[in-house]
């Protein structure tokens, strides 16, 4: 797999370069891909700061690629890798789902929305090729980084992830009270988020509907996954289902909600989002805030469950003879 990892890593780094080059050109005063009359030409210091922040974020992806493929990355504490990878998965996850669907719809319908998630006016903000180049790069980043992440996790914690979702006697007989209250709070906070995205889907372009539907997909997946992680049943509850699918859904879903909600909220509050055509009404701010809070709540609930499982001895398969003896 070393050769395959090297190829995937090279693709991931190559996918970062177009975005980095464009952003660096804009930061130094260049206008590559920005047409005459674009709002970006008069965006001021706020957009410069946000552009610098996104350069740092895309540069972090390259560092993560190295950490996931080089020997020194295996020696890093899990906590050092967890937060930046969670953020990266959260920000890239919706793009990997929504952009291919938007591109397919555009090809079938002749739409020129550019995959930006906005309306046809997106071409007045940036040249059409910029949207295609940038979001194609993001999609490749999502696929390659997630592939490297899967290989890294399989090599380092494969036995844990292949273990059963529920271990029976090693679990408490009931879910701790604060877990139940926390999950109930997450469900309540999710309601305005669901309503906000549903309202937007009722009165928006197809690209925007695909984006909002993608957020709802991750929201429901995260809620279902965390509910399964928190569910316990005492000594008799041991399932054949493995831990990794549920953990992957909780990890990615909570990251998408918290990170994209936070990013949209930052754009709305700083004014940078308004320059890009982002909705900044009171209802939109409520949706962004609730989305961020739901993601953080779900991550806070899932993290101690994973930490508890990591501290338990990995269960070994029970042979038929041993099972009969225990019976």
UniProtKB/TrEMBL annotation:
The chain crosses the membrane at residues 7-27, 47-68, 80-108, 128-153, 181-201, 213-231, 243-263, 283-303. Coiled coil: none annotated. Keywords: Membrane, Transmembrane, Transmembrane helix. It comes from the Bacteria. PROSITE patterns: PROKAR_LIPOPROTEIN (PS51257). This is Uncharacterized protein. It comes from Streptomyces smyrnaeus.
């Amino acid at each position: 797999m070393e050769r395959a990892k090297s190829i995937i890593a090279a693709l991931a780094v190559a996918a970062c370069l177009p975005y980095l080059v464009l952003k660096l050109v804009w930061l130094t005063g260049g206008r590559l891909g920005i047409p005459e009359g674009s709002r970006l030409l008069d965006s001021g210091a706020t957009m410069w700061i946000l552009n610098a922040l996104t350069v740092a974020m895309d540069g972090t992806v390259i560092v993560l690629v190295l950490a996931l493929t080089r020997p020194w990355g295996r020696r890093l504490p899990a906590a050092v890798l967890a937060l930046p990878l969670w953020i990266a998965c959260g920000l890239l996850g919706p793009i990997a789902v929504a952009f291919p669907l938007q591109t397919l719809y555009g090809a079938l319908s002749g739409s020129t929305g550019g995959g930006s998630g906005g309306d046809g006016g997106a071409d007045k903000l940036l040249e059409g090729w910029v949207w295609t180049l940038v979001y194609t790069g993001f999609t490749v980043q999502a696929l390659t980084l997630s592939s490297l992440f899967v290989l890294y996790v399989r090599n380092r914690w494969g036995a844990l992830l292949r273990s059963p979702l529920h271990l029976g006697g090693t679990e408490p007989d009931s879910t701790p009270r604060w877990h139940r209250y926390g999950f109930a709070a997450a469900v309540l906070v999710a309601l305005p988020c669901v309503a906000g995205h549903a309202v937007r889907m009722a009165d928006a372009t197809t690209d925007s509907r695909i984006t909002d539907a993608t957020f709802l997909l991750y929201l429901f997946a995260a809620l279902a996954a965390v509910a399964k992680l928190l569910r316990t049943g005492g000594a008799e509850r041991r399932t054949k289902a493995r831990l990794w699918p549920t953990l992957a859904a909780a990890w990615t879903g909570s990251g998408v909600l918290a990170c994209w909600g936070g990013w949209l909220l930052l754009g709305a509050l700083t004014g940078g989002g308004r320059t890009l055509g982002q909705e900044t009404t009171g209802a939109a701010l409520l949706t962004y805030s609730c989305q961020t809070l739901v993601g953080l709540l779900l991550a806070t609930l899932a993290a101690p469950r994973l930490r508890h499982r990591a501290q338990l001895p990995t269960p070994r398969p029970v042979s038929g003879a041993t099972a009969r003896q225990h019976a």
